[in-house]
């Protein structure tokens, strides 16, 4: 498992496509993906949106990293960082932001590599 994080519009998807030679058709949009699709795709971008949709469905994601390691250990996840800036007033938005951060933290611990993309450039946080 690999995790690529960064702010919105920083070039995360382009970085993954180039680095891992992944064509667009092998990359799944998390904003439109079902729960099950994460276990069958080489790459899921908009992971933060995938988390949001699962929360709307009432899913619990406490053991997602273990399920991913078991079912799709080579997945590349691309997620926006949401924990910066003003804390949302809306309760659901706060829960979404916190859950995404906590899930990404657990995924980072289990990932082979964690890369942060800033202005299209990689900053390697972890590489095993």
TrEMBL record:
Pfam families cross-referenced by the UniProt entry: CobU
Domain of life: Bacteria
Keywords: Kinase, Nucleotidyltransferase, Transferase
A single GO molecular function term of this UniProt record: nucleotidyltransferase activity
Protein name (Swiss-Prot/TrEMBL): Bifunctional adenosylcobinamide kinase/adenosylcobinamide-phosphate guanylyltransferase
């Amino acid at each position: 498992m690999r995790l690529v994080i960064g702010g919105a519009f920083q070039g995360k998807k382009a970085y993954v496509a180039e680095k891992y030679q992944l064509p667009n058709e092998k990359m799944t949009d998390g904003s439109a993906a079902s729960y099950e699709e994460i276990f069958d795709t080489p790459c899921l971008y908009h992971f933060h949106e995938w988390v949001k949709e699962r929360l709307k469905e009432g899913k619990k994601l406490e053991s997602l990293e273990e399920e991913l390691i078991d079912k799709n250990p080579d997945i590349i996840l691309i997620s926006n960082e949401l924990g910066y800036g003003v804390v949302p007033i809306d309760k659901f938005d706060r829960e979404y932001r916190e859950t995404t951060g906590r899930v990404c933290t657990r995924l980072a611990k289990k990932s082979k590599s964690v890369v942060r993309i800033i202005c299209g450039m990689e900053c390697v946080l972890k590489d095993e």
